[in-house]
Amino acid sequence: MEILAFGVQADEKPLIEQAFRDLPPVRCLDVFLTSDTAPIAAGHEIVSTSVNADLGAGVLEILAAGGTRMVAQRSTGFNNIDLTTAERLGITIARVSYYSPHSVAEFAWTLAMAVNRRIVRASTRTRDFDFRLDGLMGRDMHGRTAGVLGTGRIGEAFARIAHGFGMRLLGWDIAENPACMELGMRYVPKEELLAESDLVSLHVPLMPETRHLIDAAALRAMQDDAILVNSSRGGLIDTAALVTEVREGRFTGVGLDVYEAEAGLFFLDKSLEPVADDTLARLVTFPNVLVTSHQAYYTEDAVRQIVGTTARNVADYRAGRRSENVLVPRS
User: Fold this and answer.
1) Burial of 102 by CB count in 10 Å (0-12 exposed, 13-18 middle, 19+ buried)?
2) What is the pLDDT along the chain (331 residues), one digit of tens a residue?
3) Where do the domains of the chain lie?
4) What Rg value do the Cα atoms of the chain yield, rounded?
5) What's the rounded Cα separation, in Å, for the pair 55 and 83?
6) Which of 222, 107, 113, 111 is nearest to 167 (CA)?
């Protein structure tokens, strides 16, 4: 039996091969799972997928028809999976329920400081031997207010870094995190957090109730010179509304590692193709906006944890065991 892994990055391949060394051979593909590529999985009982895989009803039907009985997703988020259809088809679904929160939290801060201190613009200038400081003035984070939307493991890690900067902490979540409260975090309604925060960072999962959590009204509630960072899921922000606000000269900086229409774009080289996404094309032209391609999780430490957990999920499936990572159990 061969295990088929879709959407494997070059840096990720040796880590997957090492993690799966005690399992049946794993075949790594750099193509992502879509309706067009799903037929490749025919004859493979176990398939592993990346965060941007299409696991909607149509793709699951193709996988099931080809004999796939288990999908091991190499991510925490699973909003891309039709769990109801998977259960109907008898396909076991497992994910990685936990990996290093520091990778994402640290990258969120990387985005925040990059836009605050105009790092991209400064780097571009110095490559041209332009060493002027005009337009590069940033602000101290010390003494300012950080608003953390979502205070789970990653939000807590982000808050700890903010506390190290000497920032005042505001939080919003369905449940208060005692560890964040020990740092001095005060939980407030979302509207109050947006209005008072100099820096707003998103760390909530994407669900129907959180889609466009930051909509036009939320953006207008923020301070004109605030910094907005999203390293969670692109659908949390109404991107069209964000473009409107940035076009009007608002926000010191916006750092986005995710984009609501990133499927079919992120992780791929589109540099030689016509730009089809007008919203993203406009967004990346703003000098105070920095967009990266969903790489916040992409540290050796985190990826080792992700692929290690994925391998254990596969081993559990083969042994008939069930863990907290299973979203749809084996039928």
Assistant:
1) middle
2) 899 999 999 999 999 999 999 999 999 999 999 999 999 999 999 999 998 899 999 999 999 999 999 999 999 989 899 999 999 999 999 999 989 999 999 999 999 999 999 999 999 999 999 999 999 999 999 999 999 999 999 999 999 999 999 999 999 999 999 999 999 999 999 999 999 999 999 999 999 999 999 999 999 999 999 999 999 999 999 999 999 999 999 999 999 999 999 988 898 888 999 988 999 999 999 999 999 999 999 999 999 999 999 999 999 999 999 999 999 998 8
3) 3-99+300-328, 101-291
4) 21
5) 9
6) 113
Residues 259, 262, 266, 269: what is their CA dihedral angle, to the nearest 10 degrees?
A: -120
The C-alpha atoms of residue 162 and residue 186 are separated, in whole angstroms, by: 14
Chain centroid, CA 139 distance in Å? 27
Q: What is the CATH number of domain 101-291?
A: 3.40.50.720
CA dist 128 and 29 (Å) reads: 39
Catalytically annotated residues: 233, 262
Which has the closest alpha carbon to 71: 7, 162, 143?
Answer: 7
Distance CA 251, CA 277 (A): 23
Q: Taking CA 218 as the corner, what is the angle to CA 216 and CA 223, rounded to the nearest 5 degrees?
A: 110
What is the CATH topology of the domain spanning 3-99+300-328? Answer: Rossmann fold (3.40.50)
